[in-house]
Specification:
Elements (H helix, E strand, L loop, with lengths): L15 H14 L7 H6 L3 H4 L10 H22 L5 H11 L2 H10 L2 H4 L4 H5 L6 H19 L1 H20 L7 H9 L7 E9 L6 E8 L2 E8 L2 H16 L4
Antiparallel strand pairs: 1-2, 2-3
Helix pairs in contact: 4-5, 4-9, 4-10, 6-9, 9-10
């Protein structure tokens, strides 16, 4: 049996202006990179890597790694800080915090959209502001931090970034998951019905993205995406709550 050789695509070439841009981002992250090319790779979208004859590396593998680091770092924090929460409550609380709207918001604070290397088609169609791209890029940056600096550096970074959301949990503001809260509001009227509708599924088998919508009495309200159906439904419920307010 012959062994197959899998070649890793070359990383994007760093120009001097791009290196300066990355060094500025490095300061904003509060993380010193030994290999700043990893940070550049985290900011390289597949549409850019595969455009024309470029065929360079992109951020999907770093995104996969960062997603795992993000989950473990947030789980560790919740486990240590909230000893009275059950396993189910810990899971719901993590889902309410580590979701696309939160991660996209953190990416916007860092202006990651402006620094993304995008293919022309993705760029002109609004890819720099698309929540799914921003979420993926933020996760890829976490993956780069982990590969470059190790677990403790990555864990500390994640927990610093999510600290405001964790404080909401401590204050009791996020301990009830969005789906449960929305269900309670809708069922104030026993005749009203809520369900969640799958809108799309995209991506490779190991990294699927689900899009769901909250449907109340047959009308579509909020939409949300995530790496699992549960996360997408939570995001849809959160957006619906923001749309309807307490006057529903």
């Amino acid at each position: 049996m012959t062994e197959e050789n899998f070649e890793t695509p070359p990383e994007p070439v760093l120009t001097a202006p791009r290196r300066r841009q990355l060094m500025q981002l490095e300061k904003e992250l509060g993380v010193n990179f030994n290999n700043i090319e990893l940070l550049n790779l985290a900011l390289t979208h597949t549409s850019y890597a595969n455009e024309g004859h470029r065929k360079i590396g992109h951020n999907e593998r770093l995104e996969f790694l960062g997603d795992a680091v993000l989950e473990l770092a947030s789980s560790t924090y919740l486990f240590n800080k909230f000893p009275n929460l059950t396993e189910g409550e810990l899971t719901k609380t993590r889902a309410a915090i580590v979701c696309q709207p939160t991660l996209a918001k953190l990416a916007r604070k860092l202006d990651l959209g402006k620094m993304l290397l995008l293919g022309r088609g993705e760029d002109v169609s609004g890819g720099r502001e698309r929540d799914s791209n921003l979420e993926d890029t933020f996760e890829a940056v976490i993956g780069a931090i982990y590969l470059d600096g190790g677990w403790e550096v990555a864990r500390d970074y994640v927990q610093r970034q999510l600290a405001p959301e964790f404080e909401k949990v401590k204050a009791g503001a996020a301990q009830k998951d969005y789906k449960t809260f929305l269900q309670e509001i809708v069922q104030r009227d026993p005749l009203r019905k809520i369900s969640y509708v799958e809108l799309s599924v995209s991506g490779p088998d190991h990294m699927k993205t689900f899009e769901y919508a909250a449907e109340i009495d047959g009308k579509i309200y909020g939409k949300g995406t995530g790496r699992s159906k549960k996360i997408a439904e939570q995001a849809a419920a959160k957006e619906t709550l923001e749309m309807i307010g307490e006057n529903f």
